[in-house]
């Protein structure tokens, strides 16, 4: 276990369960003019402890990441402010990354929402074709 090992032992299982189970997070990127931009994202904590998300092409978050890869991911639903979890890291667009269709854990996590909002996994993968991988550097719990 890498960066998650920095979480105190008594909280580690809880924090990892939230990182694996929460459906929404807020991704903050930095605009070229230095102003932050925060958007909701779907995400997957992968087995190698990076965080994977998919984006539609041309979105501001992708341009921001190209200009400044420093990001923060904050978990949604923080129990009235008592269970805040944020992850700082470096984000990178990955051109030849497997699509959402080729990441079974991602599809399993979001199957219900993909079906409700996009009809099929194929429709989702076609719309959200840009992969972004966040390599965490710090976690705050």
DSSP summary: helix tally = 4
Distance between the termini: 17 Å
What gyration radius follows from the Cα positions, in whole Å? 15 Å
- One letter per element, helices H and strands E, the order comes to HEEEEHEEHHE
Sum up the structure in keywords.
141 residues; alpha+beta; seven-stranded antiparallel beta sheet; 7 strands; globular
What's the SSE blueprint?
Elements: H1 9-21, E1 25-30, E2 36-41, E3 44-45, E4 51-55, H2 60-67, E5 70-75, E6 86-94, H3 104-118, H4 121-127, E7 130-140
Antiparallel strand pairs: 1-2, 1-5, 3-4, 4-7, 5-6, 6-7
Q: What this model shows, in words?
A:
The chain has 141 residues and is of the alpha+beta class. The protein has four helices and seven strands; from the N terminus they run H-E-E-E-E-H-E-E-H-H-E. The chain has helices at 9-21, 60-67, 104-118, 121-127, and strands at 25-30, 36-41, 44-45, 51-55, 70-75, 86-94, 130-140. It has a seven-stranded antiparallel sheet. It starts with 8 loop residues before the first helix and ends with a strand. The relative contact order is 0.22. The mean pLDDT is 93.
Q: How would you concisely characterize the structure shown here?
A:
By secondary structure, the chain is α+β, with helices and mostly antiparallel strands.
